[in-house]
Design a protein that fits this description.
There is one protein chain. With 108 residues, the chain is mainly β. The protein contains no helices and 7 strands. The protein has one domain: Bacteriophage SPP1 head-tail adaptor protein (Thrombin, subunit H). A hairpin with a 2-residue loop joins β3 (38-52) and β4 (55-67).
């Protein structure tokens, strides 16, 4: 894959817990500090409706390709075009040139 194919921009988010003032913790998501914006190739792999009572939600699966990084984990999220995507899998090829990240977004 050439660098020219990495045309979109994503942000890798990590979670932290902060008190909300009532004694409970709230999870917040913020960009990882070293490189907040990463070049990527983002592809929609599947979008399908899910029925939740009388509400229809669309689950969209993405495959995101980035240059290899050792600091990407499944507990993180990816922000793309204002949407937070849950990382559900990371494929590390043998050569460690790129990562393929499987993500999911649920549109309500």
């Amino acid at each position: 894959m050439s660098a020219g194919q990495l045309r979109q921009r994503i942000t890798i988010l990590s979670s932290s817990k902060e008190p909300d003032g009532t004694g409970a913790d709230v999870t917040t998501w913020s960009a990882i500090a070293d490189t907040p914006v990463i070049s990527a190739r983002v592809e929609i792999k599947q979008s399908s409706p899910e029925f939740n009572g009388d509400k229809v939600e669309y689950k969209t699966n993405y495959e995101i390709t980035i240059r290899y990084r050792s600091d990407i984990e499944e507990r993180q999220r990816i922000e793309f075009n204002g949407r937070q995507l849950k990382i559900v899998g990371i494929d590390e090829p043998e050569r460690r040139d790129y990562l393929k990240i499987s993500c999911q977004h649920l549109d309500g």
